[in-house]
Amino acid sequence: GQQVMQIPQYQHVQEGEDFTTYCNSSTTLSNIQWYKQRPGGHPVFLIQLVKSGEVKKQKRLTFQFGEAKKNSSLHITATQTTDVGTYFCAGPLGSSNTGKLIFGQGTTLQVKP
Amino acid sequence: DTAVSQTPKYLVTQMGNDKSIKCEQNLGHDTMYWYKQDSKKFLKIMFSYNNKELIINETVPNRFSPKSPDKAHLNLHINSLELGDSAVYFCASSQDAGDPYNEQFFGPGTRLTVL
């Protein structure tokens, strides 16, 4: 079945270092969504990428969608302690009209002050 | 105003008991979901309802029974609780199941601990 893989599973960085998480889908996606879950919190939608090769920025966060629309990345420049949490990518299931999202396993980011 | 709310936030119970979790959304969305998040943070879809109709029913033990009395509410009843049911259960909603570009809005989660 359709799968979304995310690496790394965990990343520990020193505050001020950069961080990147990678997401790969087994199938071409119509779009990819990114969510952030703070410790003890719930997933919160960050952004959606739709176009092949699309790049979007939110302050220190840069999101990319691959040319083949099968992979994506989230890069954080100069991490801060507020960036701590688990970052999930998610893509819709094939041609389903159920709204089902396939989530990656998540990358948990720890930032040492 | 809380967009997606769940009760209770914490639930500690004994094996074999029956318990329910309730979810409500005030976003006017048509679609609601139940997810289970295990200790490794993996988010697994369990069920989804669109306008009170069940549209996603993943491989979940039939001890789990969702109910949607109206499109703003989705409840989850669990019979004969087992240790492996311990997890965080998230309710979520989205505008329309038929639109793959809709983002999902998650509730605060219910942490279920089965002793």
Question: What would you note in describing this structure?
Answer:
The complex is a heterodimer of chains A (113) and B (115). With 113 residues, chain A is mostly beta strands. Chain A contains no helices and eleven strands. Chain A is globular and about 45 Å long. Chain B has no helices and eleven strands. In chain B, strands 2, 4, 5, 6, 9, 10 and 11 form a seven-stranded mixed sheet that branches. In chain B, strands 1-3-8-7 form a four-stranded antiparallel sheet, with no helix packed on it. Chain B has strands spanning 4-7, 10-13, 19-25, 31-37, 43-50, 53-57, 64-70, 73-78, 87-94, 105-106, 110-114. Chain B has 115 residues and is mainly β. Chain B starts with a strand and ends with a strand. Chain B is globular and about 40 Å long.
Keywords:
heterodimer; A: 113 residues; mainly beta; six-stranded mixed β-sheet; five-stranded antiparallel β-sheet; 0% helix; globular; B: 115 residues; seven-stranded mixed β-sheet; four-stranded antiparallel β-sheet; 11 strands
Summarize the structure.
With 113 residues, chain A is mostly beta strands.
Task: Give the arrangement of secondary structure elements.
The complex is a heterodimer of chains A (about 110) and B (about 120).
Chain A: E1 4-7, E2 10-14, E3 19-25, E4 32-37, E5 43-49, E6 55-58, E7 61-65, E8 71-76, E9 85-92, E10 101-103, E11 107-112
Parallel strand pairs in A: 2-11
Antiparallel strand pairs in A: 1-3, 3-8, 4-5, 4-9, 6-7, 7-8, 9-10, 9-11
Chain B: E1 4-7, E2 10-13, E3 19-25, E4 31-37, E5 43-50, E6 53-57, E7 64-70, E8 73-78, E9 87-94, E10 105-106, E11 110-114
Parallel strand pairs in B: 2-11
Antiparallel strand pairs in B: 1-3, 3-8, 4-5, 4-9, 5-6, 7-8, 9-10, 9-11
Rg of Cα set of chain B: 13 Å
- % residues in beta strands of chain B: over 45%
Find the structural class of chain A using helix and strand composition: mainly beta
Q: Kindly state the number of beta strands of chain A.
A: 11
Low-confidence stretches of chain B: none
Distance between the termini of chain A: 41 Å
What best-fitting shape of chain A do the alpha-carbon axes yield?
A: globular
Report the β-strand fraction of chain A as a percent range: over 45%
Largest interface: A-B, 24 and 28 residues
Structure annotation, total helices of chain A: 0
Q: Please provide the ordered H/E string of secondary-structure elements of chain A.
A: EEEEEEEEEEE
Major sheet of chain A: 6 strands, mixed
- Shape of chain B from CA axes? globular
Helix content bin of chain B: under 10%
Estimated structural class of chain B: mainly beta
The ordered string of helix (H) and strand (E) elements of chain B is EEEEEEEEEEE
Whole-angstrom Rg of chain A:
14 Å
Give the low-pLDDT segments of chain A: none
The helical percent of chain A reads under 10%
